[in-house]
Amino acid sequence: MAKAKTGNKPAAPLASGYVPRLKKHYLEVVRKQLQEQYKYTSSMQIPRLEKIVINVGVGKDTVQDKGAIDPVVDEITLIAGQKAVKTYARVSISNFHLREGMPIGVKVTLRGARMYDFLDKLVTIALPRVRDFKGVSTSSFDGRGNYTIGLREQLVFPEIDYDKIKKIRGMDITFVTTAKTDDEAYQLLSLMGMPFKEK
Protein backbone atom coordinates (compact mmCIF):
# COMPACT_ATOMS: atom_id res chain seq x y z
CA MET A 1 0.00 0.00 0.00
CA ALA A 2 1.15 3.52 -0.65
CA LYS A 3 0.39 7.01 0.46
CA ALA A 4 0.60 10.13 -1.67
CA LYS A 5 2.75 13.05 -0.72
CA THR A 6 0.75 16.09 0.29
CA GLY A 7 1.43 19.71 -0.50
CA ASN A 8 1.06 19.54 -4.29
CA LYS A 9 1.56 22.60 -6.38
CA PRO A 10 -1.83 23.90 -7.51
CA ALA A 11 -2.70 23.28 -11.14
CA ALA A 12 -2.74 26.21 -13.54
CA PRO A 13 -6.23 27.73 -13.74
CA LEU A 14 -8.38 27.03 -16.78
CA ALA A 15 -9.91 29.81 -18.85
CA SER A 16 -12.90 31.47 -17.20
CA GLY A 17 -16.20 30.20 -18.56
CA TYR A 18 -14.58 27.20 -20.26
CA VAL A 19 -16.90 24.19 -20.55
CA PRO A 20 -15.29 20.94 -21.80
CA ARG A 21 -16.93 19.26 -24.77
CA LEU A 22 -17.72 16.08 -22.83
CA LYS A 23 -19.19 17.96 -19.88
CA LYS A 24 -21.55 19.72 -22.26
CA HIS A 25 -22.37 16.36 -23.86
CA TYR A 26 -23.09 14.87 -20.43
CA LEU A 27 -25.39 17.72 -19.40
CA GLU A 28 -27.27 17.94 -22.68
CA VAL A 29 -27.41 14.32 -23.88
CA VAL A 30 -26.17 11.69 -21.43
CA ARG A 31 -28.29 12.73 -18.44
CA LYS A 32 -31.48 12.62 -20.50
CA GLN A 33 -30.69 9.17 -21.92
CA LEU A 34 -29.87 7.74 -18.49
CA GLN A 35 -33.07 9.23 -17.06
CA GLU A 36 -35.13 7.68 -19.86
CA GLN A 37 -33.48 4.28 -19.41
CA TYR A 38 -33.56 3.98 -15.61
CA LYS A 39 -36.57 6.17 -14.71
CA TYR A 40 -34.90 7.91 -11.77
CA THR A 41 -37.28 9.62 -9.35
CA SER A 42 -34.79 12.43 -8.68
CA SER A 43 -32.23 14.17 -10.89
CA MET A 44 -29.71 13.64 -8.08
CA GLN A 45 -29.86 9.89 -8.76
CA ILE A 46 -28.56 10.25 -12.31
CA PRO A 47 -25.00 8.84 -12.34
CA ARG A 48 -22.08 11.12 -13.08
CA LEU A 49 -18.33 10.81 -13.37
CA GLU A 50 -16.84 12.00 -10.08
CA LYS A 51 -13.10 11.70 -10.65
CA ILE A 52 -10.40 9.95 -12.66
CA VAL A 53 -7.32 8.56 -10.89
CA ILE A 54 -4.16 7.77 -12.88
CA ASN A 55 -1.65 5.54 -11.11
CA VAL A 56 1.81 4.35 -12.19
CA GLY A 57 3.97 1.92 -10.22
CA VAL A 58 7.74 2.17 -10.63
CA GLY A 59 8.56 -1.06 -8.81
CA LYS A 60 12.21 -1.80 -8.10
CA ASP A 61 13.53 1.09 -10.20
CA THR A 62 13.74 3.46 -7.23
CA VAL A 63 15.69 0.88 -5.21
CA GLN A 64 18.52 1.12 -7.74
CA ASP A 65 18.05 4.79 -8.66
CA LYS A 66 16.20 7.23 -6.40
CA GLY A 67 15.91 9.69 -9.28
CA ALA A 68 14.14 7.21 -11.54
CA ILE A 69 10.74 8.39 -10.38
CA ASP A 70 11.17 12.06 -11.32
CA PRO A 71 10.75 11.59 -15.10
CA VAL A 72 7.59 9.57 -14.38
CA VAL A 73 6.15 12.46 -12.37
CA ASP A 74 6.89 14.78 -15.30
CA GLU A 75 5.32 12.43 -17.85
CA ILE A 76 2.10 11.89 -15.89
CA THR A 77 1.87 15.63 -15.23
CA LEU A 78 2.06 16.23 -18.99
CA ILE A 79 -0.52 13.53 -19.75
CA ALA A 80 -2.96 14.65 -17.05
CA GLY A 81 -2.57 18.39 -17.40
CA GLN A 82 -2.22 18.58 -13.62
CA LYS A 83 0.70 18.12 -11.21
CA ALA A 84 1.23 14.44 -10.36
CA VAL A 85 2.53 13.33 -6.95
CA LYS A 86 4.75 10.54 -5.73
CA THR A 87 3.32 7.70 -3.67
CA TYR A 88 5.36 6.13 -0.88
CA ALA A 89 5.64 2.69 0.67
CA ARG A 90 3.78 2.43 3.96
CA VAL A 91 5.63 -0.66 5.13
CA SER A 92 9.07 -2.18 4.62
CA ILE A 93 9.38 -5.44 2.67
CA SER A 94 12.88 -6.89 2.97
CA ASN A 95 12.50 -9.40 0.13
CA PHE A 96 12.02 -6.53 -2.30
CA HIS A 97 14.58 -4.24 -0.61
CA LEU A 98 11.66 -1.90 0.02
CA ARG A 99 11.78 0.49 2.96
CA GLU A 100 8.94 2.44 4.50
CA GLY A 101 8.80 5.93 2.99
CA MET A 102 10.49 4.92 -0.26
CA PRO A 103 8.83 6.35 -3.41
CA ILE A 104 7.13 3.52 -5.31
CA GLY A 105 4.74 5.20 -7.71
CA VAL A 106 3.08 8.26 -9.15
CA LYS A 107 -0.57 9.26 -9.11
CA VAL A 108 -2.85 12.13 -10.02
CA THR A 109 -6.55 12.67 -9.33
CA LEU A 110 -8.55 14.64 -11.87
CA ARG A 111 -11.87 16.36 -11.24
CA GLY A 112 -13.96 18.95 -13.01
CA ALA A 113 -12.85 20.31 -16.38
CA ARG A 114 -9.50 18.50 -16.39
CA MET A 115 -11.28 15.21 -15.79
CA TYR A 116 -13.55 15.73 -18.79
CA ASP A 117 -10.66 16.91 -20.98
CA PHE A 118 -8.59 13.86 -20.07
CA LEU A 119 -11.45 11.48 -20.82
CA ASP A 120 -11.99 13.21 -24.18
CA LYS A 121 -8.31 12.81 -25.06
CA LEU A 122 -8.27 9.20 -23.87
CA VAL A 123 -11.22 8.03 -25.96
CA THR A 124 -10.57 10.09 -29.10
CA ILE A 125 -6.76 10.03 -29.34
CA ALA A 126 -4.97 7.68 -26.92
CA LEU A 127 -7.04 4.47 -27.06
CA PRO A 128 -7.26 4.44 -30.88
CA ARG A 129 -3.43 4.53 -30.90
CA VAL A 130 -3.17 1.31 -28.88
CA ARG A 131 -1.80 -1.45 -31.10
CA ASP A 132 -4.48 -3.92 -32.28
CA PHE A 133 -7.10 -2.07 -30.24
CA LYS A 134 -10.49 -3.79 -30.28
CA GLY A 135 -12.17 -1.98 -27.40
CA VAL A 136 -11.79 -1.94 -23.62
CA SER A 137 -12.95 -4.80 -21.42
CA THR A 138 -16.43 -4.80 -19.92
CA SER A 139 -15.28 -6.97 -17.00
CA SER A 140 -13.16 -4.40 -15.14
CA PHE A 141 -15.92 -2.89 -12.99
CA ASP A 142 -15.55 -3.28 -9.23
CA GLY A 143 -19.16 -4.01 -8.29
CA ARG A 144 -19.67 -0.47 -6.96
CA GLY A 145 -19.91 1.46 -10.22
CA ASN A 146 -16.19 2.17 -10.68
CA TYR A 147 -14.12 1.09 -13.66
CA THR A 148 -10.38 0.58 -14.20
CA ILE A 149 -8.41 0.09 -17.39
CA GLY A 150 -4.72 -0.62 -17.80
CA LEU A 151 -2.51 0.82 -20.52
CA ARG A 152 0.78 -0.86 -21.35
CA GLU A 153 2.66 2.26 -22.38
CA GLN A 154 2.53 6.02 -22.04
CA LEU A 155 3.37 6.53 -25.72
CA VAL A 156 -0.29 6.47 -26.77
CA PHE A 157 -0.65 9.99 -25.38
CA PRO A 158 0.31 12.80 -27.77
CA GLU A 159 2.26 14.73 -25.10
CA ILE A 160 4.89 11.99 -24.82
CA ASP A 161 7.94 12.14 -27.09
CA TYR A 162 9.41 8.67 -27.71
CA ASP A 163 12.94 10.08 -27.97
CA LYS A 164 12.73 11.71 -24.55
CA ILE A 165 11.41 8.88 -22.38
CA LYS A 166 13.78 6.70 -20.37
CA LYS A 167 11.51 3.68 -20.05
CA ILE A 168 8.17 2.49 -21.37
CA ARG A 169 5.71 2.30 -18.50
CA GLY A 170 2.12 1.22 -18.11
CA MET A 171 -0.54 2.82 -15.98
CA ASP A 172 -3.90 2.12 -14.38
CA ILE A 173 -6.73 4.58 -14.94
CA THR A 174 -9.72 4.39 -12.60
CA PHE A 175 -13.04 6.08 -13.32
CA VAL A 176 -14.95 6.76 -10.11
CA THR A 177 -18.66 7.32 -10.68
CA THR A 178 -21.70 7.92 -8.50
CA ALA A 179 -23.50 4.99 -10.15
CA LYS A 180 -24.99 2.46 -7.74
CA THR A 181 -24.48 -0.51 -10.08
CA ASP A 182 -21.93 -1.58 -12.66
CA ASP A 183 -24.61 -1.62 -15.34
CA GLU A 184 -25.41 2.05 -14.74
CA ALA A 185 -21.70 2.90 -14.75
CA TYR A 186 -21.26 0.99 -18.00
CA GLN A 187 -24.09 2.94 -19.63
CA LEU A 188 -22.71 6.23 -18.32
CA LEU A 189 -19.19 5.63 -19.61
CA SER A 190 -20.44 4.17 -22.88
CA LEU A 191 -22.55 7.26 -23.53
CA MET A 192 -19.49 9.39 -22.71
CA GLY A 193 -17.58 7.67 -25.51
CA MET A 194 -15.78 4.79 -23.78
CA PRO A 195 -15.18 2.23 -26.57
CA PHE A 196 -16.21 -0.98 -24.82
CA LYS A 197 -15.94 -4.36 -26.50
CA GLU A 198 -19.29 -5.82 -27.43
CA LYS A 199 -20.79 -7.83 -24.57
Automatic annotation (TrEMBL):
InterPro entries: Ribosomal_uL5 (IPR002132), Ribosomal_uL5_bac-type (IPR020930), Ribosomal_uL5_C (IPR031309), Ribosomal_uL5_CS (IPR020929), Ribosomal_uL5_dom_sf (IPR022803), Ribosomal_uL5_N (IPR031310). Residues 43-99 form the Large ribosomal subunit protein uL5 N-terminal domain. One of its GO terms (cellular component) is ribosome. Transmembrane segments: none annotated. Pfam families: Ribosomal_L5, Ribosomal_L5_C. Gene3D superfamilies: 3.30.1440.10. Residues 103-196 form the Large ribosomal subunit protein uL5 C-terminal domain. Keywords: Ribonucleoprotein, Ribosomal protein, RNA-binding, rRNA-binding, tRNA-binding. GO terms for biological process: translation. PROSITE patterns: RIBOSOMAL_L5. One of its GO terms (molecular function) is tRNA binding. It comes from the Bacteria. Part of the 50S ribosomal subunit; part of the 5S rRNA/L5/L18/L25 subcomplex. Contacts the 5S rRNA and the P site tRNA. Forms a bridge to the 30S subunit in the 70S ribosome. Belongs to the universal ribosomal protein uL5 family. This is 1 of the proteins that bind and probably mediate the attachment of the 5S RNA into the large ribosomal subunit, where it forms part of the central protuberance. In the 70S ribosome it contacts protein S13 of the 30S subunit (bridge B1b), connecting the 2 subunits; this bridge is implicated in subunit movement. Contacts the P site tRNA; the 5S rRNA and some of its associated proteins might help stabilize positioning of ribosome-bound tRNAs. This is Large ribosomal subunit protein uL5. The lineage of its organism: Bacteria, Pseudomonadati, Spirochaetota, Spirochaetia, Brevinematales.
